[in-house]
Amino acid sequence: MTIKRQKKNYINNKDLFEALVNYKKLCIEAENSGEEKPIVTKYIGESIYQIATRLSTKPNFSGYTFKEDMVMDGIENCLQYMHNFDPEKTQNPFAYFTQIIWYAFLRRIAKEKKQMYIRYKSSHEMISMGGTYAGGEDIAMHLNMSADYINNFIEDYERKLVKKKKIDASIDED
Fold first, then answer.
1. Which residue has the higher pLDDT, 58 or 137?
2. Residue 70 in contact with residue 113, Cβ under 8 Å?
3. Measured between alpha carbons, how far is 124 from 24 in angstroms, rounded to an integer?
4. Cα–Cα distance, 15 to 54 (Å, whole number)
5. Residue 71 forms beta bridges with which residues?
6. DSSP one-letter code for 84
7. CA contacts within 13 A on the Cβ side of 15
8. Are 94 and 11 in contact (CB under 8 A)?
9. What is the spatial distance between Cα 126 and Cα 114, in angstroms, rounded to a whole number?
10. More confident position, 153 or 94
11. For FRET with 91, which of 23, 39, 115, 154 sits at 20 to 30 Å CA-CA?
């Protein structure tokens, strides 16, 4: 006889839903009386933090060095768009916040890749022109990564830019 262990969720969706409904009521009351929005409750804040932290451990996001920035972006976006949660449309705040955090992570990854592209591209151009740092040291000595990796990264990034421009152009034509 096998005993099934009940899966314990780290976020109680019903409690989070109730907390959000109560928070929304407080926001409406504050707005009607001309006061500032109330501060998000500790429970809601901790829940959002737990969702973001747990999502950052998924294989899609676990290898990035800027994971903390991703988590903070996700939390910021949740707080920014919390007022859009509509209890009449859904009673699943976990899914709502998870999706907001997911897209915040994707935006952070895109920003970081763009910055990496800019750094690699400028370093690549300085090397090809025999550039040096202000101190006169050879720039090639300061690159930690192999030239092949940098070249491949630049080519992949530029290829994706061209592909995106073609897609955007075809959408504009429609």
1. 58
2. no
3. 52
4. 18
5. none
6. G
7. 12
8. yes
9. 18
10. 94
11. 39
Q: What is the pLDDT of residues 13-26, one digit of tens each?
A: 999 999 999 999 99
Q: Report, as an integer, the average pLDDT of 108-129.
A: 83
Give the position of tokens 């990796």. 149
Asked whether the beta carbons of 53 and 97 are under 8 A apart, the reply is no
Q: What is the pLDDT of residues 127-142, one digit of tens each?
A: 667 655 555 455 555 5
Residue 15 has what DSSP assignment?
A: H
Spell out a b/e string for 124-147, using b for 16 or more CB atoms within 10 Å of the CB, else e. Answer: beeeeeeeeeeeeeebeeeeeeee
pLDDT of residue 2: 65
Q: State the chain's mean pLDDT as an integer.
A: 85
Angle made by CA atoms 121, 151, 123, in degrees to the nearest 5 = 30
**Contact assessment for residue 62 and residue 56, using Cβ atoms and an 8 Å cutoff:** yes
